[in-house]
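Budget justification aside, the reviewers requested a transparent look at the raw inputs and outputs of the sequence design task funded under Objective 1. We therefore reproduce one unedited record. The lines immediately below are the structure tokens for a 160-residue chain.
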């Protein structure tokens, strides 16, 4: 996935991931939905948009608990995370109609994880030709507006 998609703004993210204080997921949980791009909050897991997406609508599902080892997830957390991924795919399909998805866990920096101490599941919508389409969004001024609008639409369409 990382080799096939051209997402130059991710380089900035990977460079800055070690420099920001605290955990981006815990900060998002503590923060405002719109500012943190939180789409949905559950009891033990939550959904947010990736600020540095591989494609439009790139979601991340994470446990509420700050846990860095996949093997340390509780059964209810595993179930909640995958239920939210399923719901996310439903909402993305309804709103944006992607042609496929990549779902993935990047565990450890060597496996491509930008954040290694709070596990998260990536839900990446895919379209034919998206590797050509995405550089249009690489403009740093365009991406935040696009993300805010995408977050709003997904949050409003999320099943109650
Ligand atoms: Zn955390």
């Amino acid at each position: 996935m990382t080799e096939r998609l051209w997402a130059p703004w991710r380089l900035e993210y990977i460079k800055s991931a070690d420099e920001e204080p605290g955990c981006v997921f815990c900060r998002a949980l503590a923060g405002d939905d719109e500012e943190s791009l939180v789409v949905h909050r559950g009891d033990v897991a939550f959904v947010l948009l990736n600020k540095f997406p591989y494609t439009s609508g790139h979601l991340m599902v994470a446990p509420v608990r700050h846990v860095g080892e996949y093997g340390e997830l509780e059964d209810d957390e595993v179930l909640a995370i995958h239920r939210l991924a399923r719901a996310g795919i439903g909402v993305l399909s309804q709103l944006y109609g992607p042609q496929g998805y990549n779902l993935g866990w990047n565990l450890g920096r060597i496996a491509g994880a930008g954040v290694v101490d709070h596990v998260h599941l990536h839900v990446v919508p895919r379209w034919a030709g998206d590797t050509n389409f995405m550089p249009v969004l690489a403009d740093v001024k365009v991406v935040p507006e696009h993300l805010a609008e995408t977050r709003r639409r997904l949050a409003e369409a999320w099943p109650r």
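The pocket of zinc ion is lined by residues 23, 25-26, 66, 118 (CB under 6 Å). Residues 133-141 have pLDDT under 50 and may be disordered. Computational costs for records of this kind are itemized in the attached budget.
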